[in-house]
Amino acid sequence: MRNSAGVLGTLVLAGVLAAGTTGCSSGDGVDDSGGSAGSGLTRALSTLPASAGDETITYIDVPTARKLYAKDRKQYMVLSGYGIQERTQLGYTGGSLKDGWGFDDKDVDTSLMVGDGSSLLSGKFDTEAVRRAMTKHGYTAAEGDGGVSLRKSGSVAVDVSDTVRVTHRSKSPKLPLTAPDRTPADDKAYTAVSACMGDVYEATFYGKRKQGGGVVLSGIGGRLAGDGTSSEKLCALTSSRNAAERTAKALRKETGPGKAYAGTKVTVGEGDTPLVTMSWKNSRESSHRPMANNQTFTLLHALIR
Fold first, then answer.
1. Rounded to two decimals, what is the model's pTM?
2. Is residue 303 within 8 Å of residue 250, measured between CB atoms?
């Protein structure tokens, strides 16, 4: 996935949100329907602490991902884990998610992965089933703040309630079972990039930083058109118009003849801190599958040059 632990987690994009307006212009040859930031993505971001906004965040609408993967496994193969770490692991080792961990991917509505492998799953969970399954793995269960805490020395910490299951890794922000007071959804940069991406079934944000730079926050989101075709949209919020032009120039180098994004239009929006955008159709080709690492590496490098 685009935020898998390791290299991609370090590809954060730097910047300071300058004063002024932002704009998002379409005209890139891909269906730009799909609404504002008042979508499942924003609701999901509202479950995370504000500190998560400095990390790479990946969001997946799990029921939609399950349907797409069932429809075309080759095109949507990267979605097969649905953002559920335990399911991804079972893909290599076999076994039952329900038997091993006390829940199934059908119990999950949305998944969020944050930073170095922490995750937050929203849905409906049988806390007793999770407790029983995880105690078989050597975890010790205790009543926690709003749910059950499961701990095992040297292993990832897990908390679960009737509606949320979170895992914690030491290098990532601690994720809560209940919505915090301040979240990335309250951040103007996240609001702008979310609205630009529109109604998405999967998205990755590459982390907001404070040390200055041309790109404040960048994200890539997957959208579905009315005919069921899938596309990706990149939205990069910049700190100035000059920074936007530099960013667009770097991205356009990846759209020339022979490049994976040949012929793709890069657009600079309106305002003093414009959004730079580009969109492309997904296909069964390895370089154009949703959330494929080899699809987005070149774009991320272009944005941080």
1. 0.86
2. yes
The conformation of residue 175, written as its DSSP 8-state character, comes to P
Burial class (CB in 10 A: 0-12, 13-18, 19+), 297: middle
| Nearest Cα residue to 45 out of 275, 282, 217 | 217
CA-based angle 231:109:290, to the nearest 5? 20
Q: 3-state DSSP call for residue 177?
A: coil
Which of 243, 266, 97, 114 lies closest to 176 in space, CA to CA? 114
For residue 254, give both structure tokens. 């990846």
Contact 3, 59 (CB under 8 A): no
Q: Which residues contact 30 (CB under 8 A, 6 or more apart)?
A: 231, 233, 279, 280, 281
Residue-wise pLDDT for 217-269, tens only, equals 999 999 999 998 999 999 999 999 999 999 999 999 999 999 888 999 999 99
CA distances from 194 to 79, 209, 228 (A): 20, 17, 21
Q: Give residues with Cβ within 8 angstroms of 276, minimum separation 6.
A: 234, 235, 236, 238, 244, 247, 248, 251, 266, 267, 268, 269
Helices (H) and strands (E) in the chain, counts: 9, 12
* Out of 34-48, 111-125, 176-190, 271-285, least confident range: 34-48
Burial 243-265 (b: 16+ CB within 10 A, else e): bbebbbebbbebbeeeebbeebb
Q: CA 193 to CA 109: how far, in whole Å? A: 22
